[in-house]
Specification:
CATH class of the largest domain: Mainly Beta
Number of strands: 15
Largest sheet: 7 strands, mixed
Number of domains: 3
Structural class: alpha+beta
Strand order of the largest sheet: 10-9-13-12-11-14-15
CATH architecture of the largest domain: Sandwich
Shape: elongated
């Protein structure tokens, strides 16, 4: 019985030492003058130094640590911050790499890491391909332009055929390995045969749908190692920026397919992608993409599915932000506004609103003068027009002083052709400079208003963190466009008008 216990003890000790052995990577760079080298980890769209060798002698560096490194693709960086080559750190974390900087890629060798042996063979092949292509270009020199082009194109066809064959053979030979996964991420999945369309040409629609539907073939979103590759972030960006239709509804569908269908919640891939999509859509300058941010906030973040991504404090801030943005999506009805026409400014200010310092004093003045104020209010929903251009600006804003006269001038082209009105809202309390600017620039066509009694909460209702902010509303006060430049307003109105005319035909 004691022998069995001893056997189990040594078995446990052996396993423990195997999984806790740490790493030791010896690099021999012949011809290197470095005295310091960096081992850097790919991490989606970021790079992170994981170890530094400060004692490089005759090109020999040793990176060593007691804990295993995260599995993935890394790269070696010189002290001048230039990149030498990629390497794979996977199950084997004690190995050596040697190369001659005079012919870096071709001379790369690895001992103790089958992953790197396979990976370097791939790199060497493509180095040879580039050399063959450059040789073909050199050989084409001296020929006529037509002959040169023909010669290079013929060589290129041969090179491409060799590349496809090598790729297919390599992927078959390395099936089931991490190297295969890495190469698969960057491989374009294109149809081998494309049917003809009715015009006799290859069916481009078939090619597109094949490419889109097979884009993620073989990519394991549950394997955290894919985050630490040089290709995964580019593939994500290409898919969402180029491959799919760039509209909010399509993006929402595709994000859900990945986060819900391909990832595991709280897995590193899930966490990084959720953070990436959320930041990108919240910061997007493309109109309408706040809808994607609102979807992510509601379905992934606020409901507790982002614990590995954000702190509770950040979740609270995202909720506050989404609460504002989700009320201002395209085709949403905006909140009602009760504003004082600027023509009543002096009368209102005499009531003491310009000197009121606290919310209590403002409330007191409002209740005291409510009868007189009621007759001065202008309501957004009282404006009867096919389009309402809602503009928030301030007279002490330099950009506003440029944009508001431009807006006035561009809208003049629509007079008598389109039914529109402009509601301009002063976001500051000082109306003297505001009124002077209106008069000086002859902006009499606008309905000029301000909110001296502070009953509208303009900042949160209309997401005003800088000025000017321009919304285009339809007759029902639904948002048709927002955060427009002064010269874009007329373009959007004309686009809607033309679309309506086309639909009537």
């Amino acid at each position: 019985m004691k022998k069995i216990y001893l056997f189990l003890f040594f078995l446990f000790a052996f396993n423990y030492s195997t999984f806790s052995q740490g790493y030791e990577i010896k690099v021999n760079l012949k011809g290197a003058k470095d005295t310091m080298l960096f081992l850097v980890e790919y991490r989606f769209d970021q790079n992170q130094i994981v170890d530094t060798c400060k004692k490089v002698k005759n090109g020999v560096a040793i990176f060593k640590g007691k804990k295993n490194l995260d599995k993935g693709v890394y790269f070696l960086v010189s002290q001048e911050k230039s990149m030498y080559f990629d390497l794979i750190i996977n199950d084997s974390q004690k190995f050596s790499i040697a190369c001659d900087l005079a012919d870096l890629t071709s001379s790369l060798k690895s001992s103790g890491s089958k992953d790197n042996e396979q990976f370097f063979s791939y790199l060497k092949f493509f180095t040879t391909v580039n050399q063959d292509f450059n040789k073909a270009k050199e050989q084409a020199k001296g020929k006529s332009k037509e002959d040169s082009t023909k010669y290079v194109n013929e060589k290129l066809v041969t090179i491409n055929e060799n590349v496809k064959k090598f790729d297919a053979d390599f992927m078959e030979k390395t099936k089931g390995t991490f190297v295969n996964e890495v190469m698969n991420i960057k491989t374009e999945k294109e149809p081998t045969s494309v049917p003809k369309a009715s015009n006799g040409r290859p069916d481009s629609l078939y090619s597109y749908y094949y490419y889109k539907n097979h884009f993620w073939d073989g990519v394991n979103f549950k394997d955290e190692r894919i985050i630490r590759t040089p290709f995964f972030d580019d593939r994500i960006k290409k898919y969402f920026d180029v491959v799919i239709t760039p509209n909010p509804d399509s993006v929402i569908v595709e994000i859900d397919k990945i986060l819900k269908g391909k990832c595991e919640q709280d897995n590193l891939v899930y966490n990084i992608l959720l953070g990436h999509f959320t930041y990108k859509c919240e910061q997007s300058k493309i109109m309408g993409f706040d809808k994607v941010f609102c979807h992510l906030a509601k379905n992934y973040i606020v409901n507790g599915k982002a614990k590995g991504v954000y702190t509770e404090e950040t979740v609270k801030k995202i909720k506050e932000r989404s609460d504002i943005m989700c009320n201002l999506l395209i085709d949403s009805k905006v909140s009602e506004l009760y504003l004082i026409d600027t023509t009543y400014a002096r009368r209102v200010l005499k009531m003491g609103f310009d000197t009121a310092k606290t919310s209590q004093s403002v409330t007191y003045l409002y209740e005291k003068n409510i009868q007189a104020l009621t007759s001065m209010f202008t309501s957004l929903y009282q404006i009867n027009a096919k389009y309402t251009v809602l503009v928030f600006w301030a007279s002490d804003c330099g950009h506003c002083k440029t944009e508001i006269p431009k807006l006035h001038k561009s809208l003049a082209a629509l007079k008598g052709k389109v039914d529109y009105k402009v509601l301009a809202v002063n976001t500051k309390e000082d109306v003297n400079e505001w009124t002077k600017f209106i008069i000086d620039n002859k902006l009499s066509d606008f309905i000029h208003t301000f909110d001296p009694v502070h009953i509208n909460n303009l900042k949160d209702k209309f997401d005003i963190y800088s000025t000017p902010v321009i919304y285009l509303l339809d007759k029902e006060k639904r948002i048709k466009a927002k955060r427009l430049g002064s010269e874009q307003v007329i373009d959007v109105i004309n686009m809607i008008e033309n679309s309506e005319k086309m639909n009537k035909k």
